[in-house]
Design a protein that fits this description.
The two termini are 46 Å apart. 2% of the residues lie in helices and 35% in strands. The protein contains 3 helices and 57 strands.
């Protein structure tokens, strides 16, 4: 965007017809080498409306899933849709959108002015989520035609297409002087090769000067499609800065049509065919020559082409201070431009995972640190941290913060050792349930293996995707357990079937059973019954260990029916269930009090788990729960951290007593640690870090008092409520060495020894 223009601007989306019929209008070009998609985490940043140049006297408007479009749009009587708020918006308005799921495929037409912009803001970053409607009539999730408009902090998720037209564009701006910022746009263009992209700034409707800033964009387009981009810009005088883009079928960033004088800087792009395309042609409003554009301070890794000039380009485009690495064809393919100060070395990300979910910040030894061109650096990075932090700005979307973070738990799970038993069965996606189950003759399903299993058996499940909604009933014995073991941790992935007939992904009724190392992913239901539970066990002496369970019950109505990611139940007279070293996240719709992360209604233990973004409690004890050890868990960003209680009894009427809650981190929930229902006088709460829970940190009954509590920021390596947090602890964390050895496990979630002085939380 031109420096003379207010830095915050608008965004808009070309209409569905324009993006489907007028393919080139969405930035696609059949000859373009390639385009990547983008993903993931950024810290929540709220901006003062006055500082952003908004008219403080203008009325604020409110949108919530509980509202109605016949309401006046006030805080107490919000609208139901963003489209209705746009009809009511006047220059200077701020449209506050509450957390929740909103149907996409709408258009906003209202315009602000240079001194009184219109701002659409998700009040909780990435928690106002735009998804495909039941029967889509438009190819654009959000089509904005207004000028002087900002779209800030939304998630646009096209992964769960239901019927009708599939989305070809996520956030599209066709007005002028607009901004799309701090948003998460993913899984766009997944139904076939169409023309479009994740975020688009278009000149078809004569738009100019639109900025795309600090977004995460990924999984855009199908493999081999040459007409999908992560970010496409067709308008002059625009900025594309601080974005993380990956998993794109063609170009991470593509400039075309009327694009000229565009600044593309400080983006991190990987896993695309081409990193950045600078081109012009097929013009709408100009000569179609792209000149005086600047490509600087970017990191482009793991692509076929790095930076490419195409079509009509001038001789004044600049390419400087970019890190180009691991291109299989050319790092630069320029017609007239010249690249200078290029770094050809590995960027040294904290944890590079090509498919997403890694940590793409820089290690302390990265060659990208302090190597940026100062004139092209925005004042902050993707996480809102100030640039520069050192002698100069760092390349890419992230500014190095002075300490190398540890790896995140999600991308690199620590493998468990395979159990050794005299009996072994094998399951593989290439097998058949008519096979014997021997290593050379594997079965196809876990359910069939269960039918053949006997005490002292290990069921080895090979990596691959398996349809869930099954039941296992075989029981081991105290001296001869049955183990279901994913041979590559999280490599055996259980997903919803084509038409689900059960509401539990894996329903285990056997006793003396271990379920080890699976991923249960409910994010893409295909039809039928929605899963209410991920891993459920109704047997006795069972262990659920080292699994990853996520996106369960997200689309359920909040109507009083319970749900959980992992359930250990007494309904079938089960006792003594252990839930150890699992990662659980994104469970239930926002603010539903009936849906839990780890739910235990009997005796046992909940130890060493990482749990975040759960509708109600990260860890919840109820029904017949008693004598439970809750130790060294990390529970964040949920309704409640830990609930200790009993009630609605199945087989007993005594209170929950002799439960011990020690060494847990409970942070940034509505409620911290809470006793509810029927509880006894022998429960203990010791050496927990409980901090920044908005309503209360600890609430106990019967005169009980917590001891050894740490009330301070845990200092996670990288914390975000809406992305992928890294919940390892910094060396300066107040949780270090403040735990008790009582009830502490022998190893942490990564298999590291837990020794005195014990660190609070799941990671030592």
């Amino acid at each position: 965007m031109k420096l003379s223009v207010n830095y915050l601007s608008q965004t808009s989306v070309a209409g569905a017809a324009a993006c489907v019929v007028l393919l080139s209008a969405c930035g696609g070009q059949g000859d373009a080498p390639g385009q990547p998609a983008a993903v993931t985490l950024a810290a929540t940043t709220q901006q003062s409306d006055e500082a952003a140049g908004y008219d403080a006297a203008a009325s604020a408007l409110y949108v919530a899933t509980t509202g109605s479009d016949s309401n006046p749009g006030t805080s107490g009587q919000p609208f139901r849709t963003i489209a209705r708020a746009a009809q009511a918006a006047t220059p200077g308005a701020v449209v506050h959108v509450a957390p929740g799921v909103y149907e996409g495929g709408f258009r906003t037409n209202a315009s602000g002015t240079p001194t009184a912009r219109i701002r659409y803001v998700s009040d909780s970053k990435w928690n106002a989520r735009i998804v495909p409607p039941a029967n889509s009539a438009n190819a654009v999730a959000w089509d904005n035609r207004g000028s002087y408009v900002d779209i800030d902090g939304f998630e646009v998720d096209g992964s769960n297409h239901k019927a009708g037209t599939r989305w070809a564009v996520g956030l599209y701006t066709a007005g002028s002087f607009g901004t799309v910022s701090n948003s998460h746009v993913h899984h766009i263009g997944q139904g076939g090769c169409v023309s479009g992209g994740g975020i688009g700034a278009d000149s078809y409707y004569k738009g100019v000067s639109n900025d795309v800033l600090a977004n995460v964009v990924h999984d855009i387009g199908v493999s081999g499609c040459k007409t999908m981009s992560g970010v496409f810009v067709n308008s002059a005088d625009s900025d594309v800065k601080n974005n993380l883009i990956y998993g794109v079928s063609q170009a991470g960033v593509q400039l075309w049509h009327d694009a000229t004088r565009v600044a593309v800087s400080h983006n991190t792009i990987f896993a695309a065919q081409t990193g950045i395309v600078v081109g012009g042609g097929d013009p709408y409003t100009s000569s179609g020559v792209n000149d005086y554009s600047r490509v600087a301070n970017n990191i482009v890794v793991d692509t076929e082409y790095g930076v490419v000039e195409q079509g009509n380009v001038g001789s004044n485009n600049k390419y400087t201070n970019n890190l180009m690495y691991q291109q299989t064809a050319y790092p630069y393919l320029l017609i007239k431009g010249v690249a200078v100060a290029t770094i050809a070395a590995a960027p040294q990300f904290v944890n590079y995972v090509r498919s997403g979910g890694g940590d793409y910040q820089l290690q302390a030894s990265s060659p990208a640190i302090d190597k940026g061109l100062a004139s092209e650096a925005p004042p902050t990075d993707l996480n809102g941290k100030a640039r520069p932090a050192g002698a100069g700005p760092d390349l890419g979307a992230y500014e190095f913060n002075g300490a190398t973070p540890g790896p995140t738990p999600t991308p690199n799970p620590v493998p468990d050792t395979a159990p050794s038993t005299p009996n072994n069965l094998y399951v593989s996606t290439t097998g058949s349930d008519s096979n014997s189950g021997a290593q050379g003759s594997p079965l196809r399903t876990i359910a069939r293996a269960s039918a053949l299993a006997k005490p002292n058996t290990t069921v080895h499940v090979a990596p691959g995707t398996y349809a869930g909604g099954f039941k296992t009933t075989a029981s081991g014995t105290a001296s001869g357990r049955i183990y279901y073991y994913s041979t590559t941790k999280w490599g055996a992935k259980i997903v919803p079937p084509a038409s689900s007939s059960n509401n539990i992904a894996w329903d285990n009724r056997g006793s003396y059973v271990d379920i080890i190392g699976f991923e249960v992913d409910g994010s893409k239901p295909q039809g039928g019954t929605v899963w209410r539970s991920g891993l459920y066990t109704g047997g006795s002496y069972d262990v659920i260990r080292g699994n990853r369970v996520h996106h369960i019950a997200n689309t359920l109505a909040c109507n009083g029916s319970g749900a959980s990611a992992i359930g250990v139940d007494s309904y079938y007279n089960g006792v003594k269930g252990d839930v150890i070293n699992n990662v659980v996240h994104d469970i239930g719709p926002a603010n539903c009090k009936y849906i839990q992360g780890i739910y235990v209604s009997t005796s046992g233990s909940v130890v060493g788990n990482v749990v975040y973004r759960v509708s109600e409690a990260a860890i919840h004890l109820w029904h017949d729960a008693t004598n439970v050890i809750i130790a060294n868990n990390t529970a964040v960003a949920s309704g409640t951290g830990i609930v200790v209680g009993a009630g609605d009894f199945y087989h007993r009427s005594a209170p929950n007593d002799y439960t011990h809650v020690v060494n847990n981190i409970v942070y940034d929930n509505r409620y911290g640690i809470s006793e509810q229902g029927s509880t006894g006088t022998h429960n203990t709460y010791r050496n927990n870090l409980v901090y920044q829970n908005s309503i209360y940190n600890i609430s106990l009954k019967n005169g009980l008092q917590a001891t050894g509590t740490v009330s301070a920021d845990p200092q996670f390596v990288s914390y975000t409520r809406s992305g992928t947090p890294d919940l390892h602890l910094r060396s300066s964390s107040p949780a270090k060495g403040k735990g008790t050895t009582d009830h502490a496990p022998s190893t942490d979630i990564e298999g590291k020894p837990v020794v005195a002085p014990v660190t609070i939380g799941a990671y030592q």
